[in-house]
Amino acid sequence: SNVRTMSTIRALQIQSQGGPEVVSVHPIPAPTLSGSGKVIVRNEYAGVNMIDTYHFGGLYPLQCPIIIGQESAGVVEAVDPDVTSVSVGDKVVQYGGGSYTEKQLLDAERVIKLPSSISTKTAAAAYLQGLTALTILREAHPVKKGDWLLVTAAAGGVGLLLCQMGKAFGANVIAVTSTPEKCELAKQHGATHALTYNKENPSEYIDSILKLTSNHGIDGILDGVGADTWESNFSIAARKGTIVTFGNASGPVPAFAPLKLAPKNLKVVRPTLFNYVTTREEREHYSKELFDLIEQGKVKINVHDEYPFTTEDMRRAFADIKSRKTTGKLVVKI
Ligand code: NDP
């Protein structure tokens, strides 16, 4: 007969955007090579990011059905004949859409080979958030020795990396979190000072920051919280300071008039990683800098928890990252 068994893999593919009920891990056809420029990676770990909740939840509209997930690390299983940058058996990492899947078809140029000292678990835990933190400090607000930096959600995934890299690059880091325990963790990761934020009483927070900086204010405000911290940023910024607004953990920031920047000649930057790390050259450059920081021990990767790759556990992972109870990185064992 003509019956063939289609090989399948498991993937987190959503059929529509919505509540946690749209999150489902189920079988889909396995990818196959098309002839040119592609590789198939057998994923070992994927990283959980706040953006996943915007993707299934609908803050960022997507065409469905779609496999969500933004980063993974694994082993190269097959390569097209013209691919020379990686070989079968190489351990690799990549960021980009469609990562919550057992096997992933990728453009070879998107895939970066791991140094032998970095495991696929560490890579999946470090990559997207590490590149985000690095490009914020190199491009959005090119950090200078002695700068005052403020990091919101400082005990989170991106936050702990910003604290460590900020310190490594010679800045004074003030961490902002929602609990004293998270403040302590941020201090253990390079923050010189740490304080909690109360959106009902921002003046106390603003006064503390101005006092800590001897009224200089903050040169680089690195804010992934968004809505809740937005307004205070204008009061705590130094003259000629930069507000880097890079996330929406508490909701997107409101529209504002450019004249709001004039009293201190402020800059506002709203970056996404994808526009800093786009070309092969940019991928290689920033991946190498990130791997070097990890190998030199300047950046430690904190894994909060490892989740199995099932519907129930993925729903739990997303509930956890939204709950504000996690610190560091959440990873999925694929
Ligand atoms: P985190 O691990 O930092 O988790 C989110 C944290 O945000 C929480 O732990 C919490 O810390 C804080 N938070 C503040 N208000 C809320 C709220 N209302 N609901 C939930 N959390 C809240 O996540 P990530 O490291 O993945 O992401 C951090 C931010 O960086 C996000 O806004 C994300 O979108 C952004 N990001 C942007 C990128 C870009 O390219 N622009 C790339 C990667 C991430 P606390 O309790 O201490 O306030």
TrEMBL record:
Residues 18-332 form the Enoyl reductase (ER) domain. GO terms for cellular component: cytosol. The keyword Amino-acid biosynthesis does not apply. It comes from the Eukaryota. The keyword Oxidoreductase applies. One of its GO terms (molecular function) is mRNA 3'-UTR AU-rich region binding. This is Probable quinone oxidoreductase. Keywords: NADP, Oxidoreductase. It comes from Pseudozyma hubeiensis (strain SY62) (Yeast).
